[in-house]
Design a protein that fits this description.
The protein is mostly beta strands. Helices cover 3% and strands 58% of the residues. It contains three helices and 37 strands.
Length: 665
Amino acid sequence: MATEPQSIISQHYIQENASSGSNYSDIAQIAPSVWSVDPNGPGMMESQSGGPFIRGFASGQYNVTFDGIPWGDSNDFTQHSTSYFMPQDTGNIVVDRGPGDASNIGNATFGGTIAVTSKDPQSDATFTPYTAFGSFNTRLFGSEFDTGAMQKYGNASAFIDYKNFTTDGYLTNSHQSRDNLFVKFIKPISDNSVLTVVSMQNNLKQNVPLGATLANIQKYGVNYGLSSDPTSQNFYGYNYDDINSDFEYVGLQSRQGDWTVDNKVYTYAYYHNGFNGVDPGGAQPNGTVYGATNVPGQKMTMNYRSVGDLLRMSKTMGPGDLHFGAWVDHQTNNRWQYEIDFTNGGALNSGQAPGTTPVNLALATDRLMNDTLTTIQPYVDYAWKATQDLTITPGLKYVSFTRTLDAQVDQGTGLPYSGQHTWTQALPAITGHYAIAKNWSAYLQVAKGFQAPNLNSFYTVNPALGTLKPQETTNYQLGTTWESQRLTLSTDVYQIDFKNRINSSPIGNGTIFTNAGGATYKGWEGEATYYIGQGYSLYGNYSINSAKDENNQWLPNAPKTTAAAGAIYNQGPLYASLTAKHVGSRFGDVGETIPLTAYTVADFASSYTFNNVGSWAKNTKLGFQINNLFNKTDIYALGTYDANNNPMYYTLPARSYQLSLSVSM
């Protein structure tokens, strides 16, 4: 029963079309109103400049969930796509572009949800080694073992999947190495109850450029990323990350009479040690307290862990279904950053003039902080079946965010600070669904949205947090879906009224945060799939979007249109697809500055499965892919600015190839 504009990207589509190292952002970008690009190649870097984007909302302004659990950084609610789940372990991805009903929990419900689910173990015992090779010296080696249904252990089943992914990357000196282990265990514990245990471990080592100025693009080429010059702040040896992350949960699903219970207890963590030159753009000259030509840089740590519980319950009651539950999450985070001298082996650099004595090492500390975020979200809604064809679902969600900060050196001020604040709000929602015919339905939705201020609200000399209002939205959506045996159609219109948008501005040695005006997001979206027959099908979507602030100026990275088209052949052992994604013109920064032109990227994917190749193998699958078929290398996003305020850009990664092989035994 559709009550939201959703795009469901199936496990089969992911297995056939996703590159070996793809992030969920690479896969989700095919959906209407969504765009995302990894500038180093598919899966070889996080989507930069705030992506992926949904209807103009940046990462941190919508939810990302894994098996229903919201996750992300507590400081700004964003996610790190290269540090968690890989396509080999993904079941499907649902891109939900609406705020959802009251049961839709998370830090930013108003912007939608990218819901990633893990795949289930296979029914038969199988061992599957696999590998892939591609452009930019990209290599993947992995293997998966499925136990099948183990009758001696109560029909328990599990799989364990390990993979190693390495690449030099499209951008110069932008290497990545990734080790990922994923385990899933499912055990029926009664006729009506199932226990699920999931664990993921990931280690990532990478060199990440922040973009390139036009001067450097013209001088070194469109794929200029990091340099090989150890006297440069842009040297790849000075710009690297070492990140360890994990994600675990224990889930219990049970049905007792009219009651259903779904509870997940979870934890996830992200441990990041990073280094970078002070100005990788090259505008700021070298020089530290130890020497006029020494290379200045920074080293940082951000370590956090979340623990939480997600409980959902439902019961048939009267002429409808009652749903209620709660999400509770507590994240602890410690963050520090120091100025250093790379030439002098990473010694602390106070920023004083070269040769200054004595060295004031306290000036080398940019931040030294411990913070927490506690989130509590109980909800209740009732799906009232008013008539045989009409279902009305009113609901209410209560949200509470409590931030604490204990800083010896507060970022932005350099002063000590200790304090906390709690933001709360009640968020009503109502959805109506009407079955016009057996194959045709319509829905209407009105919902309130909410987001607490980011941690940077504390980066002030005297934080007046009690007067800073949280960002709020009112979402309106109207849509319809229609399907026949061959054709599926859906379309919707939406408007999102955004208020209390938080702006920041410098004042003296600190920053003041104030509630500015609002913004309005609105548009139309359409999506269609048509099965021609004989294995051939067509897919297409189109959106017209508007995202403007209170001055009627376009918000950054909000395209005016998006579109996708694809043709797929899938019959017998052969699969082939040709897809294209179009992203309309947009601006890279506030005030309609940094205009960026529209672009279209086409991809080709194919595979052939050889069955019964021998007594030792069930099947062998050979795949071949071409990304960016027509080799578009346009500038598509603003990265940041160098020390002289010159824009640094990202370009589309050039055409790349991948050959893959898997053997199931």
